[in-house]
Structures are given as structure tokens and as C-alpha cells.
């Protein structure tokens, strides 16, 4: 009787030890994004995050959570404090996380069916501006400070070509004749309208957006310069994340588009087509962009 009691106690002990060990190792996957409209962004990310968590049960992931930061630098702080596990954004916007918070590139996201993108600097068709050099002493409109295609990419491209840019606060304000003055319009539609009405000399936005707004050259705009290409979006993970979990996240993302349900979830996720490996051309280019991005962050 005594022996049976000891066996029973041992079995109960083993059961509860196993139960609480499993509980201790169960995790919540936290996915981060940057947006000025957190409620809408959470709604966009939620089905995607739930699907991802459901397919990571073997890695002891029980649930997921979406965390929205107001800026890339805030996201870097969340990464540093281990409050976000993976972050999805433009690679230029993700700079702070990669460079300052130990983030690492994982995969590329085909957002809205697009694997990569670039930006276009444009002028009115009747403009005397024929080359980038002609922008010296003139005013260029960007979208907003954290916009990848409407600011960071075209500005980095100009900086790579050794042009000196200076921010102004009013349209009628100008820098020196050797500098390109720029001002933020806060919206692509504003940028297009300002150029159209001659309020500024040139504008910049994603090439896809420019082509959409200037369809069949109906608005009498002319592309002056097209930037280099970068991945549309990237997935970045915390460097101290469990390597086995990282491998499983990679596998689930790569297999996402292989099932009907996965395709449905991706379509809801801003018409994402799939996830794949980041092209080597970008990873080779990244070190050359770092000094320019660092200089840009210092001036903000």
C-alpha cells in the first residue's frame, strides 16, 4: 500500500512537473510594425500573426501579439527591450532596428504582389530641368520623413551621387544655388499637385505611384530620374531569438503561399504574394548604404 502511494505521488509529481515545464516554455510571438494609425495596422496584421502562431505550435508558440510603434527609432527601442520578436517593414525604415538594436534580416515580403521597388523624381513636362544637376538652387518635394519611397530612397540616391540637400520649411524659401532644397508635402497627392501647379520644381514618390497618377502621361509630368531598386519589404528578427524558433518562422513564411488558406491570409495581408530569400544584390549594397542612412538619422 505504501509502495503504491509512493508510485502515485511520483506520477502526480511527474505530471505537474511536465505540465508546468511546458507552460514555462510556451511563448507568445510578438510581431512589430510602424504606423501612425495603430488600430488599422493591428487589424491588417492580426490574421497574418494568428496564422503564423498556429503553425509554430511545435516551437511552443501558443499565441501572437501585434505591437505598433510610431517610428522606426521607437521600434528599435522595443527590439532592444525584447518587446518585439520580428518586425516587417521597408529595409530603409528597418535601418534603426538592424543597426542599433541587433536586428537581422530574415526574408523578403512581396507586398501588394511586388518584390522590389524604386522611386521616381519627376518634373512637369514643360520644365527646363533636364538633369539632376538642374535641381541645384530649386525646390524638391518629398512626402514625409519616414517614407521609404517618398523620401529616404530618392534622397539616398541623390546623396550617393554627391548632391547636397537642405531642408526648408516654406515653399518660397531657397537654399544656396549649389544645394537642392527640399520640403515635405506629407502626402503623395500633395507632392503631385505642388509640382503640377508649379509650387515646387520637382517631386519624388514611388515609381508605381507616379505611373498610376500620371497614367498615359495624362497629367503632363516627366520622369527625371529613377532610383536603384530595393526589396519591397523585409522581415527582421531579434538576434537573441532562439535559432530553432527563427528557423521554424523562416520555414512557415516560405511555405505560406503553398496552401489555399495561406494564400487567403496573405491576400488579406495587404495583397502579399509570398515570402522569399532576400536578393544578394541588396545584401551586398547594404554596407554602402549604411553611412548614408546614418548621416540621415543624425540630421533628423
UniProtKB/TrEMBL annotation:
Domain of life: Bacteria
SUPFAM superfamilies noted in UniProt: Periplasmic binding protein-like II
Alphabetized PANTHER family for the sequence: PHOSPHONATES-BINDING PERIPLASMIC PROTEIN (PTHR35841)
Protein name: Phosphate-binding protein
Amino acid at each position: 500500500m505504501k509502495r503504491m502511494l509512493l508510485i502515485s505521488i511520483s506520477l502526480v509529481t511527474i505530471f505537474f512537473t511536465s505540465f508546468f515545464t511546458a507552460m514555462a516554455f510556451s511563448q507568445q510571438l510578438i510581431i512589430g510594425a510602424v504606423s501612425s494609425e495603430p488600430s488599422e495596422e493591428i487589424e491588417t496584421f492580426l490574421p497574418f500573426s494568428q496564422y503564423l502562431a498556429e503553425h509554430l505550435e511545435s516551437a511552443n508558440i501558443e499565441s501572437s501579439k501585434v505591437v505598433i510603434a510610431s517610428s522606426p527609432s521607437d521600434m528599435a527601442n522595443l527590439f532592444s527591450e525584447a518587446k518585439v520578436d520580428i518586425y516587417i517593414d521597408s529595409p530603409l525604415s528597418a535601418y534603426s532596428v538592424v543597426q542599433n538594436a541587433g536586428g537581422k534580416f530574415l526574408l523578403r515580403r512581396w507586398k501588394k504582389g511586388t518584390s522590389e521597388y524604386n522611386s521616381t523624381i519627376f518634373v512637369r513636362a514643360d520644365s527646363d530641368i533636364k538633369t539632376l544637376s538642374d535641381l541645384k538652387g530649386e525646390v524638391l518635394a518629398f512626402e514625409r520623413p519616414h517614407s521609404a519611397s517618398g523620401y529616404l530612397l530618392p534622397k539616398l540616391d541623390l546623396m550617393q551621387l554627391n548632391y547636397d540637400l537642405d531642408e526648408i520649411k516654406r515653399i518660397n524659401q531657397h537654399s544656396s544655388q549649389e544645394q537642392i532644397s527640399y520640403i515635405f508635402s506629407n502626402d503623395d497627392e500633395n507632392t503631385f499637385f505642388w509640382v503640377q501647379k508649379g509650387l515646387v520644381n520637382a517631386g519624388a514618390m514611388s515609381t508605381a505611384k507616379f505611373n498610376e497618377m500620371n497614367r498615359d502621361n495624362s497629367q503632363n509630368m516627366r520622369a527625371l530620374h529613377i532610383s536603384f531598386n530595393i526589396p519591397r519589404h523585409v522581415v527582421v528578427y531579434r538576434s537573441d531569438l532562439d535559432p530553432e524558433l527563427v528557423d521554424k518562422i523562416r520555414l512557415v513564411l516560405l511555405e505560406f503561399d503553398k496552401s489555399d488558406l495561406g494564400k487567403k491570409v496573405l491576400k488579406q495581408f495587404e495583397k502579399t504574394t509570398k515570402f522569399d530569400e532576400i536578393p544578394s544584390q541588396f545584401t551586398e549594397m547594404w554596407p554602402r548604404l549604411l553611412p548614408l542612412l546614418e548621416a540621415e538619422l543624425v540630421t533628423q
